[in-house]
Amino acid sequence: MLVSLISHLAMYPQFVIEVIYFGIISVIVAFIVAFYILTQRGGREVEADGGHEGRAGMEKGERNWMLFLFSVALIGNILFLSPILPSARNALYEPKPATTITIYVKNYSFQLPETPIIIPANTPVEFVVISEDLVYGFGIFRKDGSMVFQMQVVPKPYVNRIVWVFEEPGAYDIRSTEYSGPQHPWMFVPDAIIVEGGKS
Amino acid sequence: MNEDERKILALRFVVVALIFFALAGIEGILMRLRILNLLTDLFDERHFYSMMTAHPFVGIYGWAYMAVMGAFYFLVPYVLKRDIYSKRASYASFWLMISGLAIIWTTTFVTHYAPLYTLYWPIPVAVELAGWNPAAIFSFGVGVALVLAAVLVFFFNMFATIFLPARVEMNGGEKVGAGYVFKELMLTAFNLDKLWAKVRGIPHYTARVFNYPVFVVSVFRGCVDTTLNALVIGGVGVLLALFGAAHLFSGSSLSYSLIDPLVYKNVFWWGLDLIADGNVLIFTAGTWYLLVPLLLNRQLYGESVVRTVILADLVVSLFVWNHHMLADTPQPLVLQIQGQIFTWGELITMGLTMFAVLATIWRARPVKYSAPLKFVLVSITGYAIGGLAGIIQANYASNRFFHNTQWVIGIHGHIQLLVGLSLTIFAAIYALFPLLTGKALNEKLADAHLLLMGVGGVVMGLAMGLAGTQGMLRRTLYPMGLGIYEPYMGVALIGALMMAAGFAVFIINVVRTVGLGSLVKLFLPQK
């Protein structure tokens, strides 16, 4: 049950991050409110030009705070570069692709090799997206609107590629995730990808 | 210029900035309605995107820059007890900025030219594909170049005001040129004089940066970032003007391939992100460093450390642009990881900045909160909320599902700009108002202003962010229906309307304090 829940959440990492983020900002807001109330009360008298104000170097509290910030930055970098997130697993620790799907984009239109594109679940698939003219985006979305992944599509001579492993079977939409002109909102291909097999 | 002339100059900048703020707000609300698929008969996609192109220029340059310019034209001479370097340059920056923004706004409104502020190559010059009018490309490019020329004139005026007088006094009044200002800036902004002293083995050398108050250090270090930004974005303006002119005169486009789209994007983002660091982070920090000790009548906590933190912020800012390019797979991986790691550095510098400000307030207990101090406290909250979201999205892995979503522009962009930066600007306005006009604004109305703008901004930003985690993109209309994103956009509209109400309360406060006539007279020739 727990493994199933973790596995499900791992496929929607943005929601996990959202919950953690809201937890942290709740603490921040509570801290500021408490700070506002407490600072209006009397406190220990600290001379206006003495203490740390007049001296060079860091005070103990400031040094501890800096060490805390450094630790958060270090842990944050390690976590986001670790294979915890599916996007890191697929992008930074790229599995060898079993198949390659090449998509061309030209004049505000995706040119797919087939419609829909059939992909087996739990198999590394390489998407190669080539723009013949402008900068576009290439994003894959679930039917509930949530994003699986996306990348920018830099025009030729550049080739844009990403490897992904789909774990959930079902239909997926393709949408351009970058503005390329007023025609941009229409760059949407519903049910462009069907993932077969795997756990539902 | 005497002090009265500088006061009028500052007030003129601030009044125009407020007009631009109102304009950007009206555009924002109109676009928000259009995203909800309302007003579809009034403006189509093309019109919507042309408005979205003008919106950040009006908001960032018209509002934030003009307010900062007005405040600094008054505050830097005030703090240093000297005159501004050039009155003519001050007014040149005023009119160049207004002209440039008027051209950008008119071009987008009349021709519906809509490359957006990102200006990704070759979208702005794609005449045939996107259907742009070549005259619009030329005109827009000229507008952008004028805006950034205004910014460059302002910065030179600031640098000269800060660095020239001591030298002129040393030379017995003899004038020295721009070369001297540049050399002095480089030595002081990057502590190179200290380094040079170490190389030469000079013991107990005190860096020149200690000759200047912390606020002034923030001004010139922030100005280094924003000068580089102006050179890059102004350069893009010139480039567009050239492409537009070439098309107008020859009847056909220059080849897009003259410019590499990925190299362009790197240079563009390197320059563009420096606004975020210079204007949004360093100038804000400087304003807190000035206002909080002034309002509490005590020294800033950890002044010497704070100078180093500003230097660290300046250095970090030069290496963070890659967090905008984490979704560009042709970009070398090493650059992307470097962008991620340096961006976390901003957590440290901004965290230390907030610590110094909060520690200064804490040590002044019991504190009687005046309006500007309350605004500073809420703006710190805005920076914490928006900055944290920025740190989260600026990672290689998380960027795969955050890039270009409403999360980026909602929680990070708008909360940082509207609650963080804008409330800092309003804090400065509330603090400076008695100095500039001899009258204080009503505190109860100020409280209402803060409540509506602070809560409204956070509600709007968080609602947009929640839509972003659901997959809603920025810069995207959903003509076939918003689906699950609709409730979030509805709440975001409520937040936006709260902010508009807050701004209206502020305007009422200003008008009932000084009268509409005084504001109009400000722009008439002075006796």
Keyphrases for this structure?
A: 200 residues; alpha+beta; Immunoglobulin-like; elongated; B: 527 residues; mainly alpha; Cytochrome C Oxidase, Chain A; 17 helices
What report would you give on this structure?
The complex is a heterodimer of chains A (200) and B (527). In chain A, a hairpin with a 4-residue loop joins strand 5 (136-142) and strand 6 (147-153). Chain A contains 4 helices and 9 strands, in the order ααααβββββββββ. Chain A has helices spanning 2-11, 13-38, 60-81, 86-91, and strands at 99-106, 109-111, 117-120, 124-131, 136-142, 147-153, 160-165, 170-175, 188-196. Chain A is an alpha+beta fold. Chain A starts with a helix and ends with a strand. The mean pLDDT of chain A is 89. Chain B starts with a helix and ends in a 6-residue tail after the last helix. In chain B, helix 5 packs across helix 6 and helix 9 (261-296) packs parallel to helix 11. Chain B has 2 domains: 3-367, Up-down Bundle (Cytochrome C Oxidase, Chain A), CATH 1.20.210.10; 368-527, no CATH class. Helix content of chain B is 75%, strand content 0%. Chain B has helices spanning 3-35, 45-80, 87-111, 127-130, 134-170, 178-189, 192-199, 214-250, 261-296, 303-317, 333-362, 371-393, 399-402, 406-437, 443-469, 486-514, 516-521. Classes of the chains: A alpha+beta (200), B mainly alpha (527). Chains A and B meet through helix 2, helix 3, helix 4, strand 5 and strand 6 of A and helix 2, helix 9, helix 10, helix 11 and helix 12 of B.
